[in-house]
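Lab manual, section 2.4: Encoding a predicted structure.

Procedure: take the sequence of the chain (196 residues), apply the prediction step described in section 2.3, and record the output as structure tokens. A sample record is shown.
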Amino acid sequence: MHVPLIDAVIADDYDRVRDMVANGVDLEFRDENGRTPLLAAVTANNIEIARILMEAGADVNAQDDIQDSPYLLAGARGYNEILQLTLEHGANLTSTNRYGGTALIPACERGHVDTVKLLIAAGVDVNHINRLGWTGLLETVILGDGSEPYLQITKQLIDAGADVNLADRDGVTPLQHAQQRGFGRIATLLDGAGAR
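Recorded output:
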């Protein structure tokens, strides 16, 4: 019986995946949700299977029906080992998710400090604006909770050249959002960077 590669990935069957890849199986086969075997491996944060697939040439930018790709999902979830692999295997830094955001924006929103560091170092645009009219910095303040990880991300974004005065669609700046939410330490950081 022919078992699609994606089933072997979901079953976490490392040996079967390795054998199927060695025998030239279709790496880009998609399931009913448009998901590739590599995206299934990323969903499970299965580093070793993801590595086999990427080294065999699986597309790290192949998007499913909801516009997730292995690269974008690894960034959003903070799966840094897989994210690093996708960066080494041709991740498209300008690709966007269903919200029109780069991998950096959900990483900021979810407080993934090391993921943000990786993506900034890779060269993702820190001032990219998604369909909601928000940048990574705005999401850090609006959707974060003001805790230490969000403070660190704010500092990283400022150090990387984020425009601290890029306002949302209503004209509210990151500093104003921080003040409204009572995030004093973040507001102090922004103020020190020339935020209005």
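Check your result against the sample. The mean pLDDT is 97.
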